[in-house]
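Dear support,

I submitted the protein below through the web form. The confirmation email said the job was done, but the results page showed an empty box. After a refresh the structure appeared. I'm attaching both so you can tell me whether what I see now is the final result or a partial one.
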Amino acid sequence: MPQRHSKNNNDLAFFTYDEKRKLGYGTQNERLGRDSIKPFDACSLCLKPFIDPLSCTKGHIFCKECILECLLAQKKDIHRKSAAHAAQQKQEKEDEEDKLMLQKARELDAFDQQNHGAIPQYNDKSYSRDKNSFHGANSVKTTSYEEEALRTMKAFWLPSATPEAPIKVHAPSTDTKCPEGNEKLRLKTLFPVVFTEDANEEKRSTSLDKTYICPSCKVTLTNTLALVALSSCGHVFCKKCADKFVAVDKVCLACDKPCKERHLVNLAKGGTGFAGHGDHLEAKDFKHLGSGSGLGLVRPATKT
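What the results page shows now:
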């Protein structure tokens, strides 16, 4: 039996509703799986198992080498922006001094012309003079910028010959920021993180990756558990043990080092490369069928 004409109408200049559905038009939601979530024992910069991990006060973990390179790159960028801002300020100061000197020269020339009737001759390119031979009622008073544009722009319709506005360089912030949380971060606020490895021979022989456990309850640490690190010694516990024992006894259960409540840092959970983080593990993809999408020339497959 032949198909309905409304679902196979190829002479229209637009897609029908059935054709859009077959091509996947619109927004598709997809639940992110385990492979899309960053493990808790991975660096937030290189996304690899961390080496000599360091954590900030917000609980973001980085490799020591990665975070040092990131902070050094930020310092170099701040130095470059500061130098550009200083050069711009120096240029603005020189332009202001030249403007004041030119204004003073204009006043002196006007006074000299009023008393002696002499016509001054200016050699400054920035001084506004009528170089376009406009006289009488049709004369146009042009500014120095318009005069310079008329003199230099021979082909104003070309993009390379169009004038450009000067770029304003603002004073940069001198503080380095955390690449994950975007808060202020200094090297002295980072503290080393110590994970307790599982010493069980059976698990070590069957697993190729390192397995970390809570030193108090011996539970295997995963992304499903909330983890707490002590900034005083760096040991990591599950949140239940940290709230039940460490926060009450004010002492580390692994090394017996005294600690305070402010030393308990909640480690950030593994995020994703999509817009969803934490509890919102959902990726969205929008497809359109306009020009440039690559789907405009694709016709939906006919059902047999």
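Response: this is the final, complete result; the empty box was a page-load delay. Confidence is low (pLDDT under 50) at residues 124-140, 272-277.
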